[in-house]
């Protein structure tokens, strides 16, 4: 990406945010003074938050909550439009990749004074979660609502047929040279059209019926559900000043060799080509059709995998790497308040309630996501167990502290605009992994220009 393109992207975002500030006209002021408009994007969570609203209104009869749900892409587009027109929701669910820009441009309200006034206990949340919502300016912009990590979802019928045990899956090791026992298992699970496995003589890598490992995309700037843990257990980190990246390291040899190994699975026939992965059929649908034996994904996808009735899905740990341990990205969502809301007290009351054990117990019992409040986790674990899930692989890295944060910075959109095509080019074999050094230079120029 050349400098003029970077400047254009940066200018577009800055102009958009500036317009949002200038264009605010309190168009939402016609709402009832005690009515809070609340937005979320996950339809699976709508019922449990409707229940939260019911309890909240019973406890706070002076307030009411109107919940609106939009799909992921529409959600963010409508939110930015709301900033510009002055009709944004009073409270909305925020993602750690999105809120830094909103905070930087004054679109979300700092909660520090409210937290101090009401003596909100931030120690009730899983370790590190509350700190994820402290911006680069040192102010707090949200209260945690849930958290997530990653594991392998595997088709147990396929692992059984390959003679691979649960114990072997949960004891996998990995390294960037030969892939360790993880690659051995992936090879064993790969089957060509004539029934030959990836570790057997005559395996035809150009005519594969079942891939040992499936994936959904090239991972872009974060690789959350594709390559993040391999790089982490190889001793790599995203940036200096994690999670608030001030200098990124996509040029680190540890990262480049990790991506080289990962791409190598395509060359060996153990993983589909990038064109196949991006064909329009998503990774879970392909997994459900029996085309992938293993896929990596986040805890927020449990309900989706549970809906794949044609396969029996189980969970396995991520592998142990050269650093001597397993690691997973730990991310989470929070509820934030629009800076220009005319109902600050009502909005804060709702945010504080959503961050409480009372609300998160409701969330936990729904068995959809993992609640941020530590004391609510037993109820969540029981709910998932009732649905047939042993979620231990998701929780182990959290309990051991072997987690790393989703990379964050106010220029995340610009960084993504560089890294998505860069990673796409590598995984489609248009460029070599070494080209990521050039992409890293572009990323760091963006950060330098913004500082």
UniProtKB/TrEMBL annotation:
It comes from the Bacteria. InterPro entries: Bact_solute-bd_prot1, SBP, TAT_signal. Pfam families: SBP_bac_8. Transmembrane segments: none annotated. Gene3D superfamilies: Periplasmic binding protein-like II. Belongs to the bacterial solute-binding protein 1 family. This is Extracellular solute-binding protein family 1. It comes from Kribbella flavida (strain DSM 17836 / JCM 10339 / NBRC 14399).
């Amino acid at each position: 990406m050349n400098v003029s393109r970077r400047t254009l992207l940066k200018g577009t975002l800055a102009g958009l945010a500036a317009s949002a500030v200038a264009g605010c006209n309190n168009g939402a002021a016609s709402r009832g003074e005690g009515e809070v408009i609340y937005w979320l994007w996950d339809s699976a969570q709508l019922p449990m938050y409707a229940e939260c609203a019911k309890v909240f209104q019973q406890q706070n009869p002076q307030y009411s909550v109107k919940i609106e749900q939009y799909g992921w892409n529409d959600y963010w587009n409508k939110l930015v439009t709301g900033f510009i027109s002055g009709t944004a929701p009073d409270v909305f669910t925020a993602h750690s990749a999105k809120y830094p820009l909103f905070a930087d441009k004054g679109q979300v309200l700092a909660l520090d004074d409210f937290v101090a006034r009401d003596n909100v206990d931030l120690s009730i949340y899983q370790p590190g979660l509350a700190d994820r919502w402290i911006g680069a300016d040192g102010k707090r912009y949200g209260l945690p609502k849930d958290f997530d990590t990653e594991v392998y979802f595997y088709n147990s019928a396929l692992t059984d047929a390959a003679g691979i045990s649960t114990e072997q899956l949960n004891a996998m090791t990995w390294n960037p040279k030969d892939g360790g026992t993880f690659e051995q298992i992936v090879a064993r699970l790969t089957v060509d059209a004539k029934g030959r496995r990836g570790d057997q003589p005559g395996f035809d890598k150009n005519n594969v019926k079942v891939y040992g490992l499936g994936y959904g995309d090239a991972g872009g700037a974060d690789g959350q559900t594709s390559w993040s843990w391999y790089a982490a257990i190889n001793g790599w980190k995203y940036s200096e000043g994690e999670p608030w990246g001030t200098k990124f390291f996509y040029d680190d040899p540890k990262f480049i060799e990790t991506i080289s190994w990962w791409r190598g699975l395509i060359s060996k026939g153990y993983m589909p080509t990038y064109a196949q992965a991006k064909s329009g059929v998503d990774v879970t649908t392909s997994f459900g059709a029996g085309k992938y034996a293993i896929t990596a994904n986040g805890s927020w996808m449990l309900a989706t995998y549970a809906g794949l009735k044609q396969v029996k899905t189980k969970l396995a740990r991520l592998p142990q790497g050269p650093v001597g341990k397993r690691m997973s990205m730990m991310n989470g969502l929070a509820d934030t308040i629009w800076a220009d809301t005319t109902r600050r007290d009502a909005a804060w009351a709702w945010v504080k309630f959503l961050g409480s054990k009372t609300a998160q117990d409701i969330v936990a019992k729904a068995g959809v996501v993992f609640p941020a409040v530590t004391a609510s986790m037993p109820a969540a674990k029981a709910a998932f167990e009732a649905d047939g899930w042993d979620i231990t692989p998701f929780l182990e890295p959290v309990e051991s502290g072997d987690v790393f944060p989703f990379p964050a910075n106010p220029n995340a959109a610009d960084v993504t605009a560089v890294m998505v095509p860069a990673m796409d080019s590598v995984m489609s074999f248009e460029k070599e992994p070494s080209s990521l050094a050039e992409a890293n230079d572009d990323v760091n120029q963006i950060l330098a220009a913004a500082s």
